[in-house]
Design goal:
By secondary structure, the chain is mainly beta. It is built from two helices and 15 strands. The strands form two sheets. Strands 1, 2, 3, 4, 5, 6, 7, 11, 12, 14 and 15 form an eleven-stranded antiparallel sheet that branches. Strands 10-9-8-13 form a four-stranded mixed sheet. The N and C termini lie close together (about 10 Å).
Amino acid sequence: MAKLLSEINKVDIAIVPASINGASTGTYYNMGLRNKALFVWETGAMAAGVTSVAQVMQAQDAAGTGAKPVTNNAATITANTKVAAATLTVDTVVATNKVTVNGLVFEAAANADLAKRKFAVGADDAGCATSLAAAINHATAGVPGVTASAAQAVVTLTVDEPGEMTITITDATAVRIVPATLRAIGYVECDTAFLDHDAGFNYVALKVTNSAAALTGAVLVRGENRYSPLTNQVAAAKVDVEP
């Protein structure tokens, strides 16, 4: 029988979920018995323009002695770019105001023409949001794989198959159509060959730098173990195997 994922990968807390504004470095873990480190980090709400940069750090011990970056091991989450869920808040939209979702342009007009990706300005913001959501959901002219729902002046966008696609919002008319990220995920992977072993750097951690406050958390998956068996040190565990 093939090994379970939990038998070949070590899972640990890289960064405890918290609101991070600026830089924060998580726990350092020993890579002495493993060849690969995969850090997966997730952000919550992010306003337009906010970024979250993840950088793999290396150190000589668990206390972070001599901490320094691992070269070319950083990635950036940018608000509203390839995110898992997002919102559009409308505010006194007028005709010709536009927003682009996954490359498709939706334009406000006096009257809706959803097949042409035109949504109605409406009598108020709630009406406008409802029309915009309907345009995004249109069977032929809408955004494939994305569902929009309206509540008052806010349109929420989610993907139909989580993990299989993302949402990118661009060219929104400033102030009148305001995009924001609800949640996003990213990862950085490091091979121990990139660590400065000669100087005793065998520990890795994740450093996250947010340009504005955002709820952020991360996990570390260590793999390609040099020895077995592997034991995950966790508070609870359950696996399903063949009877």
